[in-house]
Write a structure and sequence with these properties.
549 residues; five-stranded antiparallel sheet; 16 helices; globular; binds 1-deoxynojirimycin; binds calcium ion
């Protein structure tokens, strides 16, 4: 057994399997067609049985929902559509009783335009302290009718909105309803530290930090060329000052036992990504290079190596993510001729035909590959059922600002957020209680009758059965989760590696991404495979196996 390097070396989050719960689409307890905390409470046992260690909740706070809750008007409450603070307390207590930890989403880059601080700022005069908490600037041109600079919103259009008849504009890197905080203002820093304490005191075991690399801006607001890479010279992405903020957040978290800080950092350069983790900063960051990687052995191997090397240098565990609420679902991505992904080019990917059978086979193989890698792993709700991206939602039902603010140029993220199918033969598939007057907030495909929790609970070949088996084995097997890994020699297109156990032996993982069946490497026993072995015990294409050695 490796000697723990520090008390943290055995910390729960170094090996955890974390379920991403998108409340709006998980389960509807009161029949209004929108998921809520009553629905969560009714299904906590399902998550405990699935074998995950923690649940990350997408934002559950009071919000006008201009960006599905990423526009928060009160960081210390629960939106009435989801329930009450008492419901959140109950969720935390009941989850803890089942051995599940709770991670909440904190959104520090921007508030809602309905947040009391922003309303106060709008009512206050130019240059007042209330306005200093955000980015108000005079417009350009004789009458101030041009925005202060040419920055673009990530959701399309300018990153500035003019304040009524005044000559002032405010900055929003996302929608106009999401004004950016000015992190140079000390009251903003104090407030967020207090918000962290508020939730840690209520029992939250960690926070996921939204848009974590964007918080600090160059106050001279220079133009941002589309080619300028994130980094110290970028006007707002991944500037050095942002690390100061997380160092103070780490001090807050360190004041509580076993709390984790997880950064959502979309940085293409893995070496800059790894700068966010370490003993005095964040504990982990999401691994988007892995998620964006095509289903290709060489490409995956290099992302895996780079991820592990950089995290080892920082003394932090890697994370492995196959999908989330912002990207196309994995079954769909892997069923396309181009199986990579890039948030900025979603429309391009949507033009490919999707082979769902192939995508599902690959997603199964990817699940075993991912869960065998060293570090922690995420499961985005519905991934365990093999749900696909719903690409044909009628326009009038779509809600994502990314779609309508780009005039449809970006198809938007609604297709990965369709309510879960729980049981039964037709929509709402048990998402809402029987006889509910309201339909689910996004329509569920009829074909999902085969992908309900009920339908998948029994059959040995279902995605749910595979996830349950893999998660339970992963948790019971000391060689999996955090720890060492060594590559084995393998043919082109095949990934094979060992996860050695402390006393000898361990788990050997092999993933066949080549076009032909391959022999399994030497092993004492087959633990689990993502598909049946073929004649002579060969591992077919797009299939993975866990072996005992
Ligand atoms: C990243 C979140 O995952 C996404 O859903 C959201 O729209 C943006 N940050 C803005 O908060
Ligand atoms: Ca509801």
């Amino acid at each position: 057994m490796q000697e723990p390097r520090s008390p943290e070396a055995s910390a729960w989050w170094r090996s955890a399997a974390i379920y991403q719960l998108y409340v709006r689409s998980f389960a509807d307890g009161n029949g209004d067609g929108i998921g809520d905390l009553a629905g969560v409470r009714a299904h906590l046992r399902y998550l405990a049985d699935l074998g995950v260690d923690a649940i990350w909740f997408n934002p559950w706070y009071p919000s006008p929902m201009a960006d599905a809750g990423y526009d928060i008007s009160d960081y210390r409450g629960i939106d009435p559509v989801f329930g009450t603070l008492a419901d959140a307390d109950a969720v935390i207590a009941e989850a803890h009783a089942l051995g599940l930890r709770i991670i909440i989403d904190v959104v520090p880059n921007h508030a809602s335009d309905q947040h009391p601080w922003f309303r106060e700022a709008l009512a206050a005069p130019y240059g007042s302290p209330a306005r200093e908490r955000f980015w108000f600037r005079p417009g350009r041109g004789a009458d101030g009718s041009l925005p202060p600079n040419g920055w673009h919103s990530m959701f399309g259009g300018p990153a500035w909105t003019r304040v009524g008849e005044q000559n002032e504009w405010y900055l929003h890197l996302f929608a106009p309803e999401q004004p950016d905080f000015n992190w140079a203002d000390p009251s903003v820093r104090r407030e967020f530290e207090a918000v962290l304490r508020f939730w840690f005191d209520r029992g939250a075991d960690g926070v996921r930090i939204d848009s974590a690399a964007l918080l600090t801006k160059d106050p001279s607001l220079p133009e941002a060329s589309p080619d300028s890479p994130p980094g110290p010279d970028h006007p707002y992405a991944d500037r050095d000052e942002v690390h100061e903020i997380y160092r103070s957040w780490r001090q807050v978290a360190d004041g509580y036992p076993a709390r984790v800080l997880i950064g959502e950092v979309w940085i293409p350069d893995p070496s800059r990504l790894a700068r966010y983790v370490g003993p005095d900063e964040l504990h982990t960051v999401f691994n988007f290079p892995y998620l964006s990687c095509p289903w290709d052995a060489t490409a995956l191997r290099s992302v895996i190596d780079e991820t592990l090397d950089l995290h080892a240098l920082a003394g932090a565990p890697a994370t492995w993510v196959l999908s989330n609420h912002d990207v196309d679902r994995v079954v769909t991505r892997y069923g396309r001729a181009d199986s990579s992904f890039d948030l900025a080019r979603r429309a391009y990917f949507h033009r490919f035909p999707v082979d769902l059978e192939l995508g599902t086979r690959r997603a199964r193989a990817a699940a075993l590959l991912t869960m065998a890698l060293p570090g922690s792993v995420y499961v985005y709700q519905g991934e365990e059922l093999g749900l696909w991206e719903v690409q044909d939602i009628p326009d009038e039902l779509r809600q994502d600002p990314m779609r309508w603010r780009t005039g449809g140029a970006d198809p938007g993220r609604d297709g990965s957020r369709v309510p879960l199918p729980w049981a039964g033969q037709e929509p709402p598939f048990g998402f809402s209680p029987p006889g509910s007057a309201s339909e689910p907030w996004l329509p569920q495909p009829k074909e999902w009758r085969e992908l309900t929790v009920e339908a998948e609970a029994g059959p040995p070949g279902s995605m749910l059965t595979l996830y349950r088996s893999a998660l339970h084995i992963r948790r019971a097997e000391p060689a999996l989760g955090d720890g060492p890994m060594t590559w084995l020699p393998s043919r082109d297109g095949v990934l094979a590696f060992d996860r050695p156990a402390a006393g000898g032996g361990g788990v050997r993982c092999v993933a066949n991404l080549s076009g032909a069946p391959v022999e399994l490497p030497a092993h004492a026993a087959v633990i689990l495979t993502s598909g049946s072995l073929v004649s002579g015990g060969l591992l077919p294409p797009d299939t993975s196996a866990w072996l005992r050695f």
